[in-house]
Amino acid sequence: MSLFSSDVTDSEKRRALRAGLSSGTLQRWPGAFSPLVAKLIADVGFEGVYVSGAVLSADLGLPDIGLTTLSEVAVRGSAIARATDLPTLIDADTGFGEPMSAARTVAALEDAGLAGCHLEDQVNPKRCGHLDGKDVVPTDEMLKRLRAAVSARRDENFVICARTDARAIEGIDAAIERAKAYVDAGADLIFTEALRDLGEFEQFRKAVDVPLLANMTEFGKSDLLTVSQLTDVGYNAVIYPVTTLRIAMGAVERGLREIALEGTQTGLLDDMQHRSRLYELLRYADYNDFDTSLFNFSLEGVRQ
Question: Where are the domains of the chain?
Answer without folding.
Answer: 10-241
